[in-house]
Automatic annotation (TrEMBL):
SUPFAM superfamilies in the record: Periplasmic binding protein-like II
Protein's name according to its UniProt entry: Amino acid ABC transporter substrate-binding protein (PAAT family)
Lineage summary: Bacteria, Bacillati, Actinomycetota, Actinomycetes, Pseudonocardiales
Any single GO BP term: amino acid transport
Family: Belongs to the bacterial solute-binding protein 3 family.
Alphabetically ordered keywords of this record: Signal, Transport
InterPro entries: Bact_solute-bind_prot3, Solute-binding_3/MltF_N
Length: 327
């Protein structure tokens, strides 16, 4: 019997980034621009009241939890475990994105979600069910990643989720599966190569991302604009409403691949690591996922996925960091 394909729960429409399509949308209006000194889409004067800076991080990020024993097969999941409950339900519920080309995006030809983050979801589903397609995808903006876990709407979040101390108050993270660097996406003809050339100008990033705090700390009086997602920022860039977009290089690489009139530039403004988010109540699932990531490091499948999706766009390809544990 053939298993059902992945189910997708979508609350945010996919933003198409093709320049021709954007230019053809005569009535297209961006969501309200947020940020210190951000102006409305109509081109009004900059607001005089700056947005309060993001709250500072709370201190040292703690490491994840060590796997316990060998990985069980789908037929031998511990009775009463979180994994067994997920299997009894019949599907893994995963919070993802569908607008980050190469990481998590909807293939327009097949209608399926694909990317390096999606590969991880299928890996976990295969380990629980023996079938990588036993997945219900829940698509949300990145600002909703923590609340998805807090409200128990998903089992895991795999959505370019950076580990921070503040987030660890609500989320138990796996060990990191990739290392990324915050950089800039600019028009290819802009002549911009470093962030200092953007002093006093508008730079866009996504609401709820750690990139915002990095931009605000720079002594360049940047007008930081925040929108629901990086695809929204790229639309603003294409429409001339911002001078640059700042995010992780893995995300920006996908945007640049879709729009050859843009390019990724600049030194690394920050280094971060992506991990899989889960509920602190599901410690057994965290250890199970970490065991899967250990296997992926050892057999090369994590590195192979990164090369498959990012190898043509990023040199070097983001590295798979070694695992570290707090217990």
């Amino acid at each position: 019997m053939t298993s059902p394909g992945p189910v997708v729960d979508v609350k945010r429409p996919l933003v198409f980034l093709a320049v021709a399509a954007i230019l053809s949308l005569g009535g297209f209006v961006l969501p309200s621009l947020h940020g210190n000194g951000s102006a409305a889409a109509s081109g009004e004067q900059a607001a005089t009241k700056p947005r309060p800076p993001s709250k500072p991080d709370c201190g040292t990020v703690r490491e994840s939890l060590r796997p316990v024993g060998p990985l069980p097969s789908p037929q031998a999941l511990p009775s009463g475990s979180t994994m067994a409950r997920i299997k009894a339900r019949g599907r893994l519920i995963a919070g993802v994105d569908q607008g980050k080309y190469l990481l998590g995006y909807r293939n327009p030809q097949t209608g399926q979600l694909e990317g390096s983050d999606i590969d991880l979801v299928h890996m976990i589903a295969a380990a629980i069910f023996g079938d990588p397609n036993r997945v219900q995808f829940v698509v949300r903006d990145i600002a909703d990643r923590v609340s998805l876990i807090e409200q128990g709407q998903v089992d895991i979040v795999v959505n370019s989720f950076t580990v921070t101390c503040l987030r660890q108050k609500s989320v138990e993270f796996s060990t990191p599966y990739t290392t990324v660097h915050q950089r800039l996406l600019v028009p290819a003809a802009s002549g911009v190569n470093e962030v200092e050339q953007l002093a006093g100008q508008r730079v866009c990033t996504s609401i709820g991302a750690t990139n915002e705090a990095v931009l605000r700390r720079l002594p360049l009086h940047l007008q930081v604009v925040t929108l629901p997602g990086i695809p929204d920022c790229v639309v603003a860039l294409q429409q001339g409403k911002v001078a640059a977009v700042s995010s992780d290089d893995a995300i920006l690489a996908g945007m640049a691949a879709q729009d050859p009139q843009t390019k990724v530039v600049g030194r690394a403004l920050a280094e971060t690591r992506y991990a899989i988010g889960m509920s602190p109540k599901h410690v057994d699932l965290v250890r199970f996922v970490n065991g899967l990531l250990e296997r992926g490091r050892a057999d090369g499948s994590l590195a192979a996925s990164a090369h498959k999706w990012l190898g043509e766009q990023l040199h070097p390809v983001p590295a798979v960091p070694p695992a570290k544990y707090r217990d």
